[in-house]
Amino acid sequence: MSSDNQPAFSELGLAAPLLQVLQEIGYETPSPIQAASIPHLLEGKDLLGQAQTGTGKTAAFALPLLSRIDITRNVPQLLVLAPTRELAIQVAEAFQTYARHIPKFHVLPIYGGQAYDGQLRQLRRGAHVIVGTPGRVMDHIRRGSLVLDNLQALVLDEADEMLRMGFIDDVDWILQHTPDTRQIALFSATMPSAVRRLALQHLKDPHEIKIASKTATATTIKQSYWRVGGLHKLDALTRILEMQQFDAMIIFVRTKSATIELAEKLTARGYACEALNGDVSQQLRERTVERLKAGKLDILVATDVVARGLDVERISHVLNYDIPYDTESYVHRIGRTGRAGREGEAILFVSPREQRMLRMIEQATRQKIAPMELPSAADINVKRIDRFKQQITDTIENKDLSEFLGVLSEYQVENDVDPLNIAAALASLMHGKTPLLLSERELRAPKSFDDRDGNRNKDRSKAKRRRQEGYDIDMQRYCLSVGHEHGVKPGNIVGAIANEADIESKYIGQIEIKDKATFVDLPAGLPKELEGVLQRTIVCGQRLNAKKVSGADGNGGGRGGRGNGDKRRRSGPRKPRNEG
């Protein structure tokens, strides 16, 4: 059991492949809604759950119901109804993540605004889990393209929102076209009378759960966010660290491997930094915290669980490098600063596809989170010069310089050199390869995702300008397991890579679609975590299984973003995947 008497996921009876994924993504202790729901859903009981959006309820129903799926039967066994296509996509992605170690598992989102032919083709191929909006699910049931004879369970997610949007009659109709033996889980933030009537009509002796939302945040914590993701997060973080006057900071990431990777990169940049994750022994954890308290460490890179209950007065800043999976985790994270009336600051990195979670956090905390502006090169240079001058002052006041004064006096006499030139040479030696001052070009990468490329002609001119301005970057060719026979188009590839891996469209190079595969040029040196995401991403019903192409064609795009001769390059601005 955990310190707050919550059971561990390993104690709840979930299937081994799911526990493996939870360990990989840093989930160690279930949230209250998860701990309350999972045992009952595993037993096949109906459930009526009242919990705010963002409390982790997707995992509360996805994990136990995935544990009961018969993977050998490629027919719809679980149907999840969601009020919006945005939520349907999000839930489908969550299922895909949790089932990454379940071979041959298929989940299919179906929603309005999406072409029927693609949905029909994928329904014919089969799927274990269907996630859809009520209107489109009704259409497919009427067409006979969605057959629910083998349905084991049905989830109504955000039922009160479906009522507000006028879907409650559609939901009732769908429920009437499902087997009487199916299990039902209904989740709603509030419980209007119409939703409760629906529950009483269709649920059988449901177990009722009501989770009180504990999302109050200290008023002494200043909160802000920056819209950035993927390859640009580290650059944005480095810029913030240069400018923020912080005493000590916790940086939160989602996975154990990310704590180690980011801590190593920050240490290489000269910061006193350590990783803290679930694999760290209690003894080492305590020693690390003591070093933080004593001022021997300034930055901890941590996962959610290990930082809970951490109370160190020095922690002035919390930075959410990866957005949390639920709002309660966010509150726990930023609660590490601003304690006992002290002032603190919380910064959140948000990618475009994570805007919905940002809105959930604002709703749950009842506080507006303001966008922040990253400093310019000029701002950083002012700080660097001030720090450099202070280093000189501190050294003069606190160090015995007598032996150096003698050597340098001799050098000046022997070489007749201006003392200022000697000082400048020594400063250059001290800085090594790291320049004292930055140029605006060096700060280009963390640019906001709001800046999108335009049409094809603009794209060509921008690509040329990027090469002229230093965007000339090495590209690596990848092979994706989806092609013409699956109905894929360049826009599908660009959208999937941009949304799933947070790689800006301007860094996606030449796309060449073959019958059974697609070749795409991406920036060389992608982190292993991003490569893993691209291997698991689903496009047109196919797992991409992205693999580097070695040999003569291994660097298909060369340098400078999009490769030359790209006949199938997208035209026009990219639409986000959740716009239909």
TrEMBL record:
Domain Helicase C-terminal: 233-380
UniProt feature, compositional bias: Basic and acidic residues: 445-460
Chain positions of motif Q motif: 7-35
Listed CDD domains: DEADc, RRM_EcCsdA_like, SF2_C_DEAD
GO molecular function, one term: RNA strand annealing activity
GO term, biological process aspect, one: RNA catabolic process
Keyword entries, A-Z: ATP-binding, Cytoplasm, Helicase, Hydrolase, Nucleotide-binding, RNA-binding, Stress response
Limits of the DEAD-box RNA helicase Q domain: 7-35
GO cellular component term of the entry, any: ribosome
Protein name from the UniProt record: ATP-dependent RNA helicase DeaD
Species assigned in the record: Neptunomonas marina
